[in-house]
Design a protein that fits this description.
It contains 15 helices and 17 strands. Strand 12 and strand 13 form a beta hairpin. The chain has 2 domains: 272 residues, Mur-like, catalytic domain (UDP-N-acetylmuramoyl-L-alanine:D-glutamate ligase); 126 residues, Alpha-Beta Complex (Protein-Tyrosine Phosphatase, Chain A), CATH 3.90.190.20. The strands form 3 sheets. An 8-stranded mixed β-sheet has the order 4-3-2-5-1-6-7-8, with helices on both faces. It is 39% helix and 17% strand. The protein is of the alpha/beta class.
């Protein structure tokens, strides 16, 4: 579809059109997207308190816990997250619900009419589309998940009331640099003058604090301004205002739960503890340690970089299983060697698959890293083989990319 779509066109047709508009999938910088946002009066959300969440990993789970606690406390909440796993409409939730395709089409129509000759990437279109929906529905709180980095990410066109960094590690080195210091500096670009900033990374590079001081943000750091202690059945949070005991153990990575509570405490110090407990109990995030089946036991996780793989390997090491059978597909622009190396100590057998598209890595590339393993034509074929080989007490883990998880879930639905 070369011409601009009209209202009669479907969301799928609009998405195809948007994907074809820009020669690059990633084109960091705020000048283009801000100019269109200003035309549409989307460069501020005056009726919403805005939290922006950056980090190498943990952004989606942190946003989900923030969302559920705030809704339990009675707030209306909008969330923009990416990428989606199965449906584009997953990217925007308001009060826990995806918006209908027709609203996304209306947003894209408005953006297309306003952009003129300005080039926008798919993610920039997505960000503006989300802001259009938030401006329309005016939730009390808006949560913006950064797509890549922070300083130059499209979500950063909004001056957030509070900024969060969940974790700092190497990923997207071609854009963010090849040291934790450079990555930390880019992520701290979401901080704002005289506004609170939460850093949940237990061991942040010094550049996070340096940028906070340079910008004039009010930095709160894990281990200094807030912290937590975990037991076998409960945990406690300690912050400037909250001293919460006997909290239910989260179903998301613990560091992200601590970070989310630090953000909530900073903006809503009088929030009811019952809302915190309710949010912790109900927060489960698709594609993050998500169970697909109990017999055989199948779990999917979008871990796609070394930091996430280390966390996944640590979790697998705690599971009472006989063998771990890993189904893996990755993108070739990720750190394949380090990601797979983090998983090798806990994996008994590898089932390797290619991912389609120009960024997809060949299965043989993965096999050279793990020095063996079986290669297959698709993620579905690899999953079938792992399930067929699984014996009593085995766990099948599917990981490596959002695309891998999406393909595995879609394939599994056809088997049921």
């Amino acid at each position: 579809m070369s011409a601009r779509p009209f209202s009669s066109h479907s969301l799928a047709e609009w998405l195809d059109h948007i994907l074809a508009l820009h020669p690059s999938e990633i084109d960091l910088g705020l000048t283009r997207v801000r100019s269109v946002a200003q035309t549409l009066k989307l460069d501020t959300l005056p009726n919403s308190r805005v939290i922006i969440v950056a980090g190498t990993n943990g952004k989606g789970t942190t946003c989900a816990l923030l969302e559920n606690v705030l809704m339990a406390a009675g707030f209306s909440v909008g969330v923009f997250s990416s990428p989606h796993i199965e449906r584009y409409t997953e990217r925007v939730r308001i009060n826990g619900q995806e918006r209908p395709e027709s609203e996304h089409v209306e947003a894209f129509q408005a953006i297309s009419a306003a952009q003129g000759d300005t080039s926008l990437t798919f993610f920039e279109y997505s960000t503006l589309g989300a802001l259009h929906l938030f401006a329309r529905h005016q939730p009390e709180v808006v949560l913006l998940e950064v797509g890549l980095g922070g300083r130059l990410d499209a979500t950063n066109l909004i001056d957030a009331d509070l900024a969060v960094i969940t974790s700092v590690d190497l990923d997207h080195q071609e854009y963010l640099g090849d040291t934790r210091e450079s990555v930390g500096r880019e992520k701290a670009g979401v901080f704002r003058l005289q506004r609170p900033a939460i850093c949940g990374e237990p061991n942040p590079p010094v550049t996070v604090a340096e940028e906070a001081e340079r910008i004039g943000a009010q930095l709160c750091q894990r281990g200094q301004d807030f912290d937590a202690e975990f037991g076998d059945t409960a945990w406690r949070f300690r912050g400037a205002h909250w001293q919460l005991d006997a909290l239910p153990l989260p179903h998301i990575p613990r560091d992200n739960a601590v970070t989310a509570l630090a953000a909530l405490e900073r903006l809503w110090p009088k929030l009811a503890p019952d809302a915190v407990s309710a949010g912790l109990k109900q927060t489960r995030v698709e594609g993050r340690l998500e169970p697909l089946c109990d017999a055989p036991r199948i779990v999917v996780d979008v871990a796609h970089n070394p930091h996430a793989a280390r966390h996944l390997a640590q979790w697998l090491a705690t599971q009472p299983v006989a063998r771990v059978r890993a189904v893996c597909g990755m993108l070739k622009d990720k750190d394949i060697d380090a990601t797979l190396a983090a998983m090798m100590p806990v994996v008994s057998q590898w089932y390797l698959a290619p991912l389609s598209g120009p960024r997809g890595a060949d299965a043989n590339r993965l096999a050279t890293v793990v020095q063996g393993g079986a290669t297959f034509e698709s993620v579905g074929d690899a999953l079938d083989a792992a399930v067929q080989d699984a014996q009593r007490g085995d766990l099948v883990i599917v990981f490596g990319s959002f695309y891998t998880v999406a393909q595995a879930k879609a394939h599994w639905q056809t088997r049921r």
